[in-house]
Design a protein that fits this description.
With 268 residues, this protein is α/β, with parallel strands linked by helices. The protein contains 9 helices and 9 strands. β8 (182-185) and β9 (191-194) form a beta hairpin. The longest helix has 17 residues, at 225-241.
Length: 268
């Protein structure tokens, strides 16, 4: 079994962050491990408080994993501050971490800032460590410094992000109103478009975390980036189709649809 590490924040309602990452990793048949960067108080209605972990405990979490276990891939999520970003960057370089997938988490669906403004420049420097970065359109606009309104803009923004050091960029199109095509810009210049379908549900909590963790798991298993994104898109689409109306706000996606059905959960 391949071993995949997530470095991200904790979501107390289990829909996003570390909790979503571990569920997606399990669904992909890899052994998931975690380094927690922050604890959030959140539910389906939003994020209400964040408490960062100290750089010492973050560094120690990374150290004990890499000193004991071979890590086949690393997924990076919420990093919060420049100090945390720099600490993680040093540690990943020290242990020669491979197959790093970066989901540049900046703002929650409830518009709570998960990345401090002062940390944006640190994140821009950090992304050169990644094999793949998976920004959504608002994140892509911040990283590229340009407005994204169509597919040509998505491609141009991805190329600008590559100039920051990112090798491959998956620009997610879910925030667009006309369609939800994702575009993968590879380091060899190849551009691959992944058409998506707009699913009529508000329950999309944790979609970005789930997709990036799925891709990291598949790359850790030896799949190419293009194959990993294709399978990841198929998986997250089914997870959104089979999402849960839990709570009063944005519910979580269904990570284990087949297992849930076997357990008697009805989707009718």
């Amino acid at each position: 079994m391949k071993k995949v590490l997530t470095i991200a924040g904790s979501d107390s309602c289990g829909g996003a962050g570390i909790q979503a990452d571990l569920k997606a990793m399990s669904a992909m048949g890899v052994y998931g491990m975690s380094v927690i960067t922050a604890v959030t108080a959140q539910n389906t209605m939003g994020v209400f408080a964040v408490e960062e972990m100290s750089k010492e405990i973050i560094e120690n979490q990374i150290r004990v994993i890499f000193e004991d276990i071979e890590v086949d891939a690393v997924k990076i999520g919420m990093l919060s501050s420049s100090e945390i970003i720099e600490t993680i960057g040093r540690a990943l370089k020290k242990y020669k971490a491979k197959n790093i997938i970066i989901d540049p988490v900046m703002v929650s669906k409830s518009e709570y800032k998960l990345l401090k403004d002062e940390a944006i420049e640190a994140l821009k420097k950090f992304i050169c460590l990644g094999k793949l970065i998976t920004p959504n359109i608002p994140e892509g606009e911040i990283l590229s410094g340009m407005k994204i309104e169509n597919e040509d803009d998505m491609i141009e923004a991805s190329k600008r992000i590559q100039k920051l050091g990112a090798k491959n960029v998956l620009m997610k199109g879910g925030h667009r109103s006309d369609n939800c095509t994702d575009i993968l810009v590879l380091e060899n210049g190849k551009i691959v478009k992944f058409d998506g379908i707009r699913i009529d549900t508000k329950n999309t909590h944790g979609t970005g975390c789930t997709l990036s963790s799925t891709i990291a798991s598949l790359i850790g298993k030896g799949y190419s980036i293009e194959e990993s994104v294709k399978i990841g898109k198929e998986y997250i689409t089914e997870a959104i189709k089979n999402s849960f109306p839990i709570g009063h706000g944005v519910g979580p996606v269904g990570h284990f649809v087949d297992l849930y059905k076997k357990a008697g959960v009805s989707y009718e």
